[in-house]
Amino acid sequence: MLEDRTEHPCQVVDMSPGNVALRTDRIGMPGEKVIAYIDHIGRIEGVVTRTLQDGFAMTVIASDRKKDKLAAQLTWLANKHELDLPEDRRHERVAPRNPTSVLQLVDGRQYQCRIIDLSLSGAAIEIDVKPAIGVQVMLGTMRGQIVRHFEDGVAIEFAVIQRPETLDSEFNTPRA
After folding, report:
1. 3 state DSSP class of 149
2. How many other C-beta atoms are found inside a 10 Å radius of the C-beta of residue 171?
3. Cys staple from 10: which of 24, 39, 59, 145, with CB 3.0 to 4.6 Å?
4. Torsion angle, CA of 92/118/170/106, rounded to 10 degrees?
């Protein structure tokens, strides 16, 4: 969507957490504000920095936290084929009513954590420590491994797909 609020289809040609090059029929002018909705990324705001033969480049305007999240999304997208990762999340994520839990490492060390969200296949937790990717852990009574780091914590993939009843009894998750 350009500054005049007109919407136009576009295709990402190149992207980093700070810049995006778009191919589009309607070229934005330098200095013009732009909002782009990009598959797998979401809403990106920015300003046109230069025109291209078949589109334009823009600088992304976002907080450092949002740029970090964008960097993580771009890394995931760039590596998903090599790692044979699924296209999208496999299971719906919910925020538990009781987010306080304990993360235990294989060597027995335990850390208080807060569950940001969880699904039948994993969880995102806020925690002060960042065990290495691949490390086996226990979140409450659920075995899993660290699969990703982000600014305030880690993501865990459970060793087995959980049943909704198990998540509900362990973390008091909302029922649909």
Report:
1. strand
2. 22
3. 24
4. 140
